[in-house]
Amino acid sequence: MMDQGAPSIMTVVDLKVGFGNTTVIDGLNFELREGEILGLIGPSGSGKSVSLRAIVGLLPTRGGDVSFAGQNYSGLSSSEQIVVRRDWGMLFQQGALFSSLNVVENIEFPMREHLDLSPRLRRELARMKLDLVGLPPEAAYSYPSQLLGGMIKRAALARALALDPKILFLDEPTAGLDPIGAGKFDELIVTLSDTLGLSVLMVTHDLDSLQTACDHIVALSGGKLLKAGTLSDMRAATDPWLREYFHGPRAHNPEG
Q1: Rounded distance, CA 78 to CA 62, Å?
Q2: Shortest CA distance to 250 belongs to which of 201, 150, 179?
Q3: Model confidence over 100-109: pLDDT tens digits?
């Protein structure tokens, strides 16, 4: 888990995102620290996934700054932004694997784009990533259509780790998984963060993920920051939505 005195690796300041006349994110502020697993939560339509996609540049912003290791991303040149993105790994909700490529080819894809490696070394590194996420060697030559949900998530995670990122972005990583599979995936994320020193920003609605994996939590509501803090802070909050979320019938409350 995160060192409480760890420096910030990513800072979001006054982020604004909108579509047409609709403002989705209106002045969001939070930071991700080195080695931290940060959960991003909020009601449906609160802008969790929109925030994540705007942070990594997949959606245009209307204002604000996102800085990585003290560098304002929007102020960098295109070539400098490419260097910064090399330090990111992204896991989309449905995996987003290339259907025409088998698993090992999917993992090799970022290496082909960014690294000057021999085919043999690429293949060896891809197999190492497979092992890292707990997939058996025989999964290497399966196609996405041949994989079950949990294996798709792990294959996509292996691809996200292909370039040895410093930051891992996860969009609803346990969505569609049964409770056992989701629990194992949460444990895998914690293990990878601890062993590789990864910082993780996780968009989730899964209470078990928050409890198992997250050091801190950022809650959104109406496109704004509702609250940031630990799980204990969230459980002690008086906001009606947070009360319902953390103390409702699906919550796991140690105090009963």
Answers
A1: 19
A2: 179
A3: 999 999 999 9
